[in-house]
């Protein structure tokens, strides 16, 4: 607003009470006195303006001090940062640079400021010999106590320091010849600006040549102190609006510089007003609480983190009532760099700003004073109207910034209050979704009752995580629920040499930064799942049935960082112990485990499912362990480069141990042999796929129960403890029933179970020839015996009766079998019982000093010929599942020779074709 609008005299109403007053210094007259507001009665609400003029004598100046001040009006909060007060109904204008006592000359005098409300103008010293005060009101009644003050005419010589410079009201030349003393004191015009006072400098107009943002040509520099060696407040050029500056102490130094020009500049220059006052905010409340006063402001401060430090912020003059009509800004900034990111937590321990209750509930109650809080960095864009909290009254609040910045604006109104005291804490900002721990540590909880699915990540992801940090992520499922976690990105710093087959995990490879996973049980025990680092992402993991949930921990050391991880979690209804597929095996000699749909390839989980899990549990009998052979393995993933994030197989060689499982994915080369021995009786295999599974052929695993030979791998020289076991070339003792079943139960590279040992070939051949010769002789004897008996029957005149023949034959064979049995042993009793599996094997005896060789055993195209001696008689069985040749004794007839049975079919002398087949064998 142009100055003339402030200074133009208002027309006086006719017959108005006299309100103008003049105070003149005369020789012999009073040199001081008092003044007060006029007593006016203005029933018609006409505007009234009263002029108070103070005129000093030659060599004098005027000093004016206000004792009380209570004009109607409400200066805006911005008045403290340079805006003109909005005093409408009542105000006072002050002119301290008046050169003439004529009221009409005020229009040409510099304007010294407009005042209303309860804050009195500062003490004034005239620039020349006069001060004018213009009082305006449109109130019905004005009483003298509206404002009161004193005036004094003082000697002007103390302001005249040297020879006046023509054309300047306050410039002087000081030379030694003009000074009795070699030292002196320089004071500013209208001093005092005393030690307990501060200086306010307001530029009403500012227009300099703009040469760039750094003002390389024309500029004004303002220093916070007596000269240009003081701290620089700022450098200004171009056009400035509402530029108001305050000194920290009792002086400001202003330096104006302009380059010589040959042409007239179009820039106006600058015009400003200054003010000394002890009523400006004292800065003790900033300095005593680790704050930094922002130079040039009345009471703005910034507080910078000292890494997870704490402190207090106070209202001005706390714990005493604050000064009315004051605006202070607080900028509380945490650390933010490549290694650190902090947020600000603020909690008020005391708060008192008077609240004004309004009938209109839509109107704010904080109209007289307030504290506005900004949590999202709005101050960087001057968006002070977009605050997060507006506080007044006696309420307290706990707030946390969204980033490293928290700002506050405190504005006091006409009503005084005690103010506030708040404790700030700088804590690391992790940018992790989840429920954070109340102590500000990197601990986050995910509860099924709150959210069924969501995301988690390393601190500050996708930016690098901070160094020297430990974070914990706890997932708590409800009863009859499981939680699944799937990793989508993984990069943890690792300087070890990861094992390509097993992946980059384990304490050997991950000893700097790492991620660990645990299963959490209801007894507060954790079961370790694995440690991961490098590029090897953990495979999808599903908490087992009966567990409370899962826990993830992240550890980083003090050197180097990486981008970290990002994952998803899902709470779903719990599955059975074996999951979506699998099995529970016990008291079995061997078995085969394959992935779903093998070898056609496994698939992703069904729609709406986070994962598919198959669990196989194998339990050996006491005194046995488990041999686990991966015959074929093809799972998507690459342990060295990207891990097993889509599908994974985990193998526990001892479920009762705290050791983590082996975690596998990728492709097993044909030349590699993946073979493992359990360390206890029980082993577990878990196959888990996620919703991002593509699919691969899968796996085929052979597990076999082997006799426990004690700690360590079985010794090749160890002999089996029972003749009912088969000893593999590698030393394993397995069930003799597993011979020739087409499965390599001895493990990779060992075919001993599918062929006879080399040292038994000679004995086997001789024994086979003897058995065949015996059978031929036996058949011939049976044949001639039958012919002779028939001949005798014919001579007796008996006719052939099929039923008779059948009964007789059976009876004769039975008798013959009893005869053979009386010779020492039954062929069928020893052979058939063993091979049919009905014979109970006694407990294994202690190893003898010399163990007899195992019976000869021949495997032919998946079938076996077992030659087991029994009481001196050989037994013959073709046990390919189709043909059984068995010599037996039916105990029916002692006079007839043994029958021959093949697959339970009896052959007599008429069955020549079958006999010929037997002879060929």
Automatic annotation (TrEMBL):
Residues 798-817 are annotated as: Disordered. Keywords: Disulfide bond, Membrane, Transmembrane, Transmembrane helix. Pfam families: CUB (PF00431). The keyword Magnesium does not apply. Residues 19-154, 170-277, 299-427, 442-572, 581-706 form the CUB domain. GO terms for cellular component: plasma membrane. InterPro entries: CUB_dom, LDL_receptor-like_sf, LDrepeatLR_classA_rpt, Non-NMDA_GluR_Accessory, Sperma_CUB_dom_sf. Disulfide bonds join 728-746. Residues 804-815 have a biased composition (Polar residues). This is CUB domain-containing protein.
